[in-house]
C-alpha cells in the first residue's frame, strides 16, 4: 500500500502479466471455499432429480445452476489476475460477492423443485453488480486498457438489467430468455477484450483453475463417502458397496492425475486462442461436480431408493467421468501429447462412457481409468518433462509453472 494514499486505498492499476512468483492469494482461496456450498447443493439436487426419474429436467436445471456458479467464479478470477490490489475495499467487495454466492446456494432448491429462479437471479445479479463496481474502479487507473474496463462494466450492467427484467416473463418464455442471457454473458468478455486486452497471468490463471478443480473433486469425494457410509445400514451384503467405494477413490485419483498431467499454462495465449480452454472448462467443472450425484444414484439402486434401473443408472456416473476425461484431453492434453496418449485417452473416455453396457461396470471403469493413468506415467508431455500438481516436477512444467 502506498503511504498516505487516500482512504488507504491502492490505485487499481493493471498487474504485470510477467510478474515473478505470482500465486493465488488467501482471499482467492477463501472465495473458492464458499463455492463448495453452492456446488454441493447443486449436486445433491441433481442426485434427487435423477433418482426420482426426472433425468432431463434434472440435467437442464443443473446446467443452468452450474452456469451461474461457474460464471461468477470465473469472472472474479479473471478480474483478479489483472487488477487485484488486496486493499480493504477490494476485500470488502469480494466478501459481498461471497455473500451473494451463499444466497445463490439457498435458491438452488426452489429452482430444481419448483422452477422458481427468482432468488437465484437476484443473488446472481448482486454478485455481478459488485464486479461492475470493481471494473469501474479499475477504469480510473487502467491506462491503455481503460476502454476495455468500461466495456466490461457497461456490458455486465446491461445484462444484469435484462436478468431482472426476465423475472417478469411468463414461465413458458423464461427458459428461452435464460439461454439468450447466458449467450449475452458469454459475449461480454469477447467484445471487451477486442477493445483493449486486459493483462492476465498464465501461471496465476491456470493455478486458479487447478485449485477449483481440486475443490470440485474434493466435494465429490466427500459427498460420495458420506453416501456410502449412510448406505451401510440399508445394504445386507457390503460387497457392491465396497466396490463403489473403491471405484470412487480410483476414479477421483485418476481425474486428478489426468487433469494435472499437461502444462495448462500454454493454453492461455490470446483471446481467440484461450476461448476454448476458458469456456470449455464449464463442462470439466460441471462433470466433476456431477460425479458424486451419479455415484449416489448407483447407491440408491442398491438400497432400492430410485426408480432407475441398471444398466441405465450407471450412466449417471460414467457420463461425468467421460466428459471430464475427454474435456481435459481436448483442451489441455492433445496439443502436448504424442500419438499414443492422443489415442489411448479419448479411447479410455469412450470406454468409460459405454461401460454400463458391459456386465462388470465397477471393476472395468476402475481398470480403464487406471490404465489411462499408467499410459500417462509411461509417456511424457511433448516437451519431455514430467508434470506435477504444483509445477515443481522436472523442468517445472504443470499448472503451477510458467
Write up this protein:
With 402 residues, the chain is mainly alpha-helical. It folds into two domains: 25-195, no CATH class; 202-398, I/LWEQ domain. It has 13 helices and two strands. It has helices at residues 26-51, 55-83, 88-106, 108-114, 118-139, 146-165, 171-195, 202-231, 239-259, 271-303, 315-333, 339-354, 361-378; strands at residues 387-388, 397-398. The chain has a two-stranded parallel sheet. α3 (88-106) packs antiparallel against α5 (118-139) and α12 (339-354) packs antiparallel against α13. The protein is globular and about 70 Å long. The two termini are 27 Å apart. The relative contact order is 0.10. The model is unreliable at 386-402 (pLDDT under 50).
Lay out the secondary structure:
Layout: H1 26-51, H2 55-83, H3 88-106, H4 108-114, H5 118-139, H6 146-165, H7 171-195, H8 202-231, H9 239-259, H10 271-303, H11 315-333, H12 339-354, H13 361-378, E1 387-388, E2 397-398
Parallel strand pairs: 1-2
List key phrases describing it.
402 residues, mainly alpha, I/LWEQ domain, 13 helices, 2 strands, 71% helix, globular
Give a nutshell description of this structure.
With 402 residues, the chain is an all-alpha fold. The protein has two domains: 171 residues, no CATH class; 197 residues, I/LWEQ domain.
Amino acid at each position: 500500500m502506498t503511504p498516505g494514499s487516500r482512504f488507504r486505498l491502492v490505485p487499481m492499476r493493471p498487474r504485470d502479466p510477467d510478474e515473478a512468483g505470482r500465486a493465488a492469494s488467501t482471499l482467492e482461496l477463501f472465495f473458492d471455499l464458499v463455492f463448495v456450498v453452492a456446488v454441493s447443493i447443486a449436486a445433491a439436487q441433481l442426485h434427487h432429480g435423477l433418482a426420482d426419474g426426472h433425468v432431463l429436467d434434472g440435467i437442464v436445471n443443473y446446467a443452468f445452476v452450474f452456469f451461474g456458479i461457474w460464471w461468477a467464479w470465473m469472472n472474479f478470477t479473471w478480474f483478479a489476475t489483472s487488477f487485484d490490489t488486496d486493499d480493504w475495499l477490494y476485500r470488502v467487495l469480494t466478501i459481498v460477492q461471497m455473500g451473494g454466492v451463499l444466497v445463490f446456494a439457498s435458491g438452488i432448491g426452489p429452482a430444481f423443485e419448483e422452477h422458481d429462479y427468482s432468488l437465484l437471479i437476484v443473488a446472481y445479479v448482486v454478485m455481478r453488480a459488485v464486479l461492475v463496481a470493481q471494473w469501474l474502479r479499475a477504469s480510473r487507473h487502467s491506462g491503455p486498457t481503460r476502454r476495455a474496463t468500461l466495456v466490461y462494466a457497461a456490458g455486465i450492467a446491461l445484462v444484469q438489467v435484462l436478468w431482472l427484467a426476465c423475472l417478469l416473463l411468463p414461465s413458458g418464455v423464461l427458459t428461452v430468455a435464460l439461454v439468450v442471457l447466458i449467450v449475452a454473458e458469454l459475449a461480454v468478455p469477447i467484445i471487451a477484450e477486442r477493445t483493449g486486452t486486459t493483462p492476465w497471468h498464465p501461471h496465476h490463471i491456470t493455478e486458479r483453475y487447478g485449485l477449483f478443480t481440486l475443490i470440485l473433486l474434493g466435494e465429490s469425494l466427500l459427498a460420495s463417502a458420506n453416501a456410502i457410509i449412510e448406505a451401510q445400514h440399508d445394504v445386507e451384503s457390503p460387497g457392491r458397496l465396497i466396490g463403489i467405494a473403491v471405484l470412487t477413490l480410483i476414479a477421483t485419483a485418476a481425474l486428478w492425475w489426468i487433469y494435472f498431467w499437461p502444462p495448462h499454462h500454454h493454453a492461455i495465449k490470446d483471446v481467440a486462442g484461450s476461448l476454448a480452454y476458458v469456456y470449455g472448462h464449464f463442462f470439466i467443472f460441471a462433470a466433476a461436480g456431477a460425479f458424486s450425484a451419479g455415484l449416489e444414484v448407483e447407491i440408491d439402486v442398491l438400497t432400492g431408493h430410485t426408480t432407475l434401473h441398471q444398466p441405465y443408472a450407471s450412466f449417471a456416473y460414467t457420463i461425468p467421468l467421460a466428459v471430464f476425461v475427454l474435456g481435459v484431453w481436448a483442451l489441455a492434453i492433445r496439443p502436448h501429447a504424442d500419438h499414443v496418449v492422443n489415442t489411448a485417452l479419448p479411447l479410455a473416455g469412450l470406454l468409460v462412457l459405454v461401460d454400463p453396457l458391459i456386465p462388470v461396470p465397477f471393476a472395468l471403469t476402475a481398470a480403464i481409468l487406471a490404465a489411462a493413468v499408467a499410459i500417462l506415467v509411461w509417456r511424457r508431455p511433448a516437451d519431455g518433462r514430467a508434470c506435477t500438481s504444483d509445477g515443481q516436477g522436472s523442468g517445472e512444467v504443470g499448472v503451477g509453472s510458467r
